[in-house]
């Protein structure tokens, strides 16, 4: 009986090809890691990345270098990762906008699930609905009644067309069946400034951005879009408590690597990131920013991105949001 040696030869050469990636994973990281933040310094994405990156550096013994590459709502920095070498040394912590919304809103140079490798969902941050101090509404029911009494007269601010706050307002319109007008701004700060100046009536924004003005009494909180009340704003009801379970709106930030990054390297990055997130000091720092750390498996994060993409694509379609495709 003659036994073909071809399968054995294939197996042998397959193992030879696998050995370099196994060795690289075993020694990973052997040099500094570049962690791209696709937004300017000082914002929620930047703060989360710096806290996580610092702990990753301490755990690994290698520097984790923050590289802020703002532009196009996070798209430019995320695209830089998609074009990077797939060796695990250039990664990003990017946002819901760049990973799940922008690809449905505009022509971007990457396909999230084909050109990037999900590593882990890092954190979620509730969106808070607030109104200007002169708006005569103290809860979501009163706000909806006010909007229905004045169709097309109330405005909602956002941090830009196609941003999560923009689509949050569109989802609010669809869910509550109200007619309110979108006013886009170039970022959260100018939107908040005009809300304080009572030039617009309401907005959805990341809770940490709004909390100082809420605590100062300058803005009135209406609801948060998380499943449970936010620890930093325990008196503010959730949208579900207010009778709108479908108005679930949270921003989120996830770690991604270039496509074709070896599974062993992805596993090493995942292990390093989740160990950093499990540190009590890291949890406490980011809880003060209104962020809840997650740390799921790569495949779960992949499914999460796919679900979020479908959700917001439907809102874009149903609301008739103009796209740049």
Write a concise synopsis of the structure shown.
This protein has 325 residues and is of the alpha/beta class.
- Could you tell me how far the N terminus lies from the C terminus, measured between alpha carbons in angstroms? 63 Å
Strand content: 15-25%
Specify the oligomeric state: single chain
Number of helices: 12
Note poorly predicted spans: none
Net shape: globular
Mean pLDDT: 92
Rounded to the nearest angstrom, the radius of gyration is: 22 Å
- Report the structural category: alpha/beta
Helix content: 40-55%
Q: How many beta-strand runs?
A: 10
SSE string, helices as H and strands as E? HEHEHEHHEHEHEHEHEEHHEH
Strand count, sense and barrel status of the largest sheet are: 10 strands, mixed
Keywords:
325 residues, alpha/beta, 10-stranded mixed sheet, 10 strands
What does this structure look like?
This protein has helices at 6-26, 44-60, 75-82, 96-105, 112-115, 140-149, 164-176, 188-196, 207-215, 263-277, 280-287, 298-319, and strands at 33-37, 64-68, 90-95, 116-132, 155-158, 181-184, 202-206, 219-224, 250-258, 292-293. The protein has 325 residues and is of the alpha/beta class. Strand 5, helix 7 (164-176) and strand 6 form a beta-alpha-beta unit. It is globular and about 80 Å long. The chain starts with 5 loop residues before the first helix and ends in a 6-residue tail after the last helix. The mean pLDDT is 92.
